[in-house]
Amino acid sequence: MESVPVRCPACGRDHAYSTPAYPCPCGEPTAPPLLRGAPAVRVAHRSWNDVWVTVRCASCAREDQWPQPELCCPCGSVLRIPVRPVATAAARAEPVLPAHIPLPRTAAHPRPAFRPVTIRTGDDAVTAAGRYLTWLGYRDVGRPGAGPASGIDLRGDGVIAHVDSRTRPAALRAVETLWLNALGASAAGVFFSLAGYAEDARACADGVGLPLFVLDLTGTPQPVNGPADELVSTGA
């Protein structure tokens, strides 16, 4: 695990920081590459661009958004640890596919029409989402034993999902939590909501490639971002 010396600009205390590694979907542990020798920056105000950094997996070359490395100093300061930037796709002369353009359907066999479940309760919403994941091609989809407190309402072979049945839009924190849970489980994450999504939650999901669906009361999920469109087009 990479470690770098970090000095707090507020109190002058020295630290040794090791960045945490998360599993890439290919299974390889991946961590943001730290920029050795660059001074840490004290966090005064947060913005969306400060929260995430682009990281390329050394094994499969996949690029994803990862949490910006930070350190909490005992003096109370939060320090942002600089990372080495990833070269752009253009600089590497590689073709790039915009994330918001749905891919052609490449499922091995055409799927039959989806049969929805009318939603009257929160349990109905979870049932409808589980049926939809199975329709997309995920196998062995069911409710995990840990229950809703874990933040995971459905789990299948290679997928976990959260189903938000509340009457207000899903928040940024819920989307971040599902994405991190999916990274930790080396699985795809899929989010379902009855009331839509806050603007920053949608921006986060777009940035990390997390599919978002809205459930109407007929129990039919509708994709609301590019990753969800692609999942519907390609299947699991």
TrEMBL record:
<protein>
    <recommendedName>
        <fullName>Restriction endonuclease type IV Mrr domain-containing protein</fullName>
    </recommendedName>
</protein>
